[in-house]
């Protein structure tokens, strides 16, 4: 286990511009800039078939998973909302995105009928889904209801 390479994410600080290399395991823990100590903007986790088990099913936090595709207009409308939620919910909910064109097996497994679809997954199990584009307030409301 110890000889695996730790996955990291590069995050640019909005305050000072420093590029911070953050281990994935710390993305959920409100990472701060190494130079100026500002809280870093955390992006959604990018999920593929390769990391679905470790990053979603085994996540210690509930996961909000956005299933999308590049050709889907409503998905592109949702993208900035998902980005905002990733930072606002850091430490509470792991916000993640899965491109259904690239990971069709997972889309089939969850019987995704249309996109965008948002799945709320806790302890590896789907506990809620929202089909279609929703405003941020509706997504937050749903999270409050089910978590
Ligand atoms: Zn900084």
Query: What portion of the residues fall into strands of 2 or more residues?
Result: 25-35%
The helix/strand class is alpha/beta
**Main pleated sheet:** 5 strands, mixed
Mean pLDDT: 93
Query: How many strands in all?
Result: 7
CATH topology (fold) name of the largest domain: Glutaredoxin
CATH architecture group name of the largest domain:
3-Layer(aba) Sandwich
Estimate the global geometry from the Cα principal axes.
globular
Order of helices and strands: EEEHEHEHEEH
CATH class of the largest domain: Alpha Beta
The Cα radius of gyration reads 15 Å
Number of domains: 2
Distance between the termini: 32 Å
Account of the protein in words:
Helices cover 27% and strands 26% of the residues. By secondary structure, the chain is α/β, with parallel strands linked by helices. The chain has 2 domains: 7-41, SH3 type barrels (Roll), CATH 2.30.30; 43-146, Glutaredoxin (3-Layer(aba) Sandwich). The mean pLDDT is 93. Bound molecules: zinc ion. Zinc ion (ZN) binds next to loops.
């Amino acid at each position: 286990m110890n000889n695996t390479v730790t996955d990291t994410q590069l995050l640019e600080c909005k305050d000072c511009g420093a590029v911070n290399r953050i281990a994935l395991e710390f993305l959920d823990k409100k990472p701060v800039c190494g130079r100026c100590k500002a809280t870093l903007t955390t992006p959604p986790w990018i999920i593929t078939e390769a990391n679905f088990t470790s990053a979603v099913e085994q996540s210690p936090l509930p996961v909000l998973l956005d299933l999308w595709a590049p050709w889907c207009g409503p998905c592109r409308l949702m993208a900035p909302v998902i980005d905002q939620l990733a930072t606002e919910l850091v430490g509470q909910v792991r916000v993640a995105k899965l491109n259904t064109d690239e990971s069709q097996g997972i889309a089939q497994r969850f019987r995704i009928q249309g996109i965008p679809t948002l799945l709320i997954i806790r302890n590896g199990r789907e506990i809620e889904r929202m089909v279609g584009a929703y405003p941020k307030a509706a997504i937050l409301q749903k999270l409050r209801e089910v978590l």
